[in-house]
Amino acid sequence: MGTASVQLFPEFIAETLGLPGVIGEVVAALIAAAVVGNVVLAFTGVAGPWAKRKITAAFTDRIAVNRVGPFGLLIIPASAVQLLAKELIVPEGVDRPTWDLAPIVLPASALLGFSVIPMGRLGPINFHLADPEVGLALVFAFASIASVSLVMAGYASNNKYSMLGGLRAVAQNLAYEIPLIVTAMSVVIFAGTLRMSGIVAAQETVLFSVAGFDIPSWYAFVNPFAFVLFLTANMAEIGRNPFDIPEAPTEIVAGYQTEYSSAYFVLFYLGEFVHVFLGGAIIAVTFLGGAAGPGPESIGFLWFVVKIWGFFLFTQWARSALPRVRIDQLIEIGWKGMLVLSFANLVLTAVIVGVIA
Amino acid sequence: MSSEQPFITDESSVVTETRDSRMEGQGARFNSRLREAFGSSPFILTKFDKFLNWCRGSSMFMLQFGIACCSIEMMHTYAVKHDLDRFGSGVPRASPRQADVMIVPGTIVSKFAPRMKRVYDQMPEPKFVVGMGSCTISGGPFQEGYNVIKGAEEVIPIDIHVPGCPPRPEALVYGVVKLQERVANGEAAPVTVKPYELEEFSDLERDELVETLADEIEDDELVMRYNFADSP
Amino acid sequence: MSLEAPDTPDTDAADEHTPDELAALLGDLVVDRDDHLNAPGFVIRPDTVQETLSVLKEQAGYDHLSVVTAQEYENRYESIYHLKKFDDPTQEVSVVVPADTDDPVSESAEPVFRTADWHEREAYDLMGIEYDDHPDLRRILLPETWQGHPLSMDYDKDRPQIATLPEHANPLEDHHKDAKSDTMFLNIGPHHPATHGVLHLKTTLDGEQVVDVEPDIGYLHRCEEQMAQNGTYRHQIMPYPDRWDYISAGLLNEWAYARAAEDLADIEVPEYAQVIRTMGAEMCRIAAHMLALATFALDVNGDFTATFMYAINDRERVQNLLEDLTGQRLMFNYFRLGGVVWDLPKPREEFFSKTRDFLDQLPGSIEEYHNLVTANEIFQMRTIDTGILPPDVAKDYGATGPVARGSGVDYDLRRDDPYGYYDELDWDVVTEAGCDNYSRLLVRMREVEESAKIIGQCVDLLEDWPEDERTIQANVPRTLRPDDDAEIYRAVEAAKGELGIYMRADGTDKPARFKIRSPCFSNLQTLPEMANGEYIPDVIAALGSLDIVLGEVDR
What we know:
The complex is a heterotrimer. Chain A is mostly helical. Chain A has helices spanning 9-17, 21-59, 75-84, 96-113, 135-156, 160-191, 196-202, 219-222, 224-237, 262-287, 300-321, 327-356, and strands spanning 121-122, 125-126, 206-210, 213-216. In chain A, the strands form 2 sheets. Chain A has a two-stranded antiparallel ribbon. In chain A, strands 3-4 form a two-stranded antiparallel ribbon. In chain A, strand 3 (206-210) and strand 4 form a beta hairpin. By secondary structure, chain B is α/β, with parallel strands linked by helices. Chain B has 8 helices and 7 strands, in the order H-H-H-E-H-E-E-H-E-H-E-H-E-H-E. Chain B has helices at 12-24, 33-38, 43-58, 69-78, 113-122, 134-138, 169-184, 208-213; strands at residues 61-63, 91-93, 101-104, 128-132, 160-162, 198-200, 222-226. In chain B, the strands form 3 sheets. Chain B has a 3-stranded parallel β-sheet with strand order 3-4-5. In chain B, helix 3 runs antiparallel to helix 7 and helix 4 (69-78) crosses helix 7. Chain B is globular. In chain C, strand 10 (200-206) and strand 11 (209-216) form a beta hairpin. Classes of the chains: A mainly alpha, B alpha/beta, C alpha+beta. Chains in contact: A-B, A-C, B-C. Chains B and C meet through helix 4, helix 5, helix 8 and strand 7 of B and strand 8, helix 5, helix 8 and helix 18 of C.
């Protein structure tokens, strides 16, 4: 499996450790998944308690954490342990298995999404767990499980604010999932494949050269319109400002996660950030050439990291600067604006690709 | 006015009882059953305790809780110039379930006290309270008001009092940092048994007042009974 | 947005009536005269309240019911309706309604003035006067289970009390047409990030839409009126006004008390002190409006975002100036009856240059807010045409300040009922005709610019003030004892609107009755008008645009 030239991460582990047979493949896959999962979790760990505060602080002329360890970095273990060690309150009247599952489903869905993301090479290792035919479809399928989690949390919490948050999450996801996927389809038309590695490979050619610099044919450059559409829909999909209405502090307290404390809250918090990074990863793969960047291919992973952190920065920027839209306006934008635009984009792309090809 | 209502009540029993009941819960906040099972002070647990205390002291989530005048200065404390977040304690959470520290910034009045108790009860342990301003100490300038609770400690236990009317943001920062220090050093805050508790209406003593209200209040409704004559 | 000129004053209504003309107009309704220092007072029978007020409202043009004051005498209860005209607030009239001590019942003014609803509930709550024909006479500030009426004479403050923590029922439960239609009851507050303190909104939702909202107040009722009645005029009352509208509007509030007490005791304030007062008050207004902007951004943006931080930063700058001037950041206690407590800080040049620096950077910051907030399409989408408050409704509810001016009601006591040094200075009253959340915010932001203009002129004046004429306080007797039974109602334009004080002297050094007319109290009443039928986020935005401060609503 996989394109011939690229060795996937599990295969690399199986080969390096010399694990034979089916069992070897399973063990290697588990190890690889654990490594990738931990890398992603490490990002969120840095992002949640530290980077988010530092970035927001920079936008608002503040300093933020700087007393706990160098640059306040020790806030990361401190916050994590402190939150996990808190009392886990199970409010009266919650719908038990659902209530417990919701905080697990959210980060799980986002982490699953990373299984098909080609994150580029670091030395001999190619951070890419699996490369199925339907990679892009799969990643959207995984990512949208998140809304199920939000509904579960909202419904099971026995709290009206949570309920409102859950309902808003559904409405929002329905309104934005379709434009998101339709816009992604235009990329698929360009690339001619749903396979993630294929999409990345299709962006390697040179679009044009300016003063000796080769501009690669990243789809963000090929079709900036689709890129903007996708970026917007993605912001709504991951529920960041100006589309953070399922959480909407100051309106519905903390939305679906109002009743969650301690470890469950950590899981939600984590899940949200993994989702932001997954959103960034999807954008990087579909529009920003995946792990491509200047320098040798063996540091591609670093470029990938830069891209997803760039997206994270973008979300925080939007959070600092933009007001939140209202739920009805959001749905209006989704169904009346984005959907039409994304179909227009799809048709246009199809025509262009058809004519050129 | 003030001559009718002595600053310290002659009824010393109330004060004594309150103090005694406060002593009882001392330390229960940090001592777990696991710890009891392991005996006095096993190395690993004390080190773990220390680490945990450090974590708790280093990272605190604040409850977004505004009551009165002091909340304005509290906002300033979160904001640019004073930036409480520098000390790792500047993340305001709107939901009490996710907060560690409740800053009580203002006067507590009869109608609000049960609600504040409810919010406090909704916070997960370990939880800490910073009493901001004179009103949370004694009722402050409004002490003689017919409707004012003479200090937040009548209702919930307070770990750190920051005096002032209102305290400057610097003072609040100092208070919060002191609290962090105390928590990091494992200085257990006493758990208070409060003179004003939430009770079901039917559990109250059947005195004249309760009889009068019997038609108005359901038996299982939660109520808070104030003994204004007894409170200091 | 449309910028139509506000309604031109109705010339008939603006016609001045002499007290005798009014008495003639009311005819038999008047049983006695009880003139106050500020206005003629007509005593009427308790069952002719509606009739009297309608005559005054419709035939004499008294369309603004400022406040309802209730008080108890040895032999009677009394409700006073302080009426004014929105077109000319210097034309005032008081309608005095005595009620029997044993059975204090009086007719409600609610059908004539909607604003009387809450004012009469408060009178009932604190004083125990019952109002016939009132739609919903319940306690408003104290818990419903409270025993006794605390401002009445026979109240025993030592008796135990019980406060409940009830489960609220959906008030529309019975209105559901069939099993399928359903509404949800939602408590917003008293602890909620968007209520700006401890306000409780009993909200009924149909999906995301609000079908009914009822503000429930009293979670910060700190007995301010009792506190003031226990204090002596000269020194003990002045610290409390700072704590009514605690959003740095301290000096504005102090001025309300100072103005009323000075007029009551006939004290002349030196001109130099008036200029300092004017400057300090406008600094407070800037600070207060900056916080309004900050919290409004908090409500619309969510979280502690950039706008919030920048606005708080600007507040910090004003507060530094105020601290230089008064010695405190928030609770200034700077005014004294007859002047201010001390002169400008020395060296004066430094204070002036600091103030000028602030004024110089202010246009830059305001432009930044306009870029960040008011010019933002999403923000406009959220706030324009939401939370509509038509001018006639605003007047009916007695809304004043930026709330009224955002609805095109051209009413500003600084210009219409001049005090301090305002009438000597060059500035404009800001109005917007949009009637929506956006207009109210714009009014505040433009008022900041006007305040800056005023401060600039005051600084120029103070700088050139001859050194031997810098009198900061008039000669005021150590103990003030205004004449027995002198009554006065005086208002100033505070940050939120008309902040008025009613005082009755009884010959001692403490007021016998001290009533605060809080602008927020009246403004908050308009919330259901603005919110019903809107979405939850709009209710939050409308609440933010009202810019209430609970210390002043509950007092």
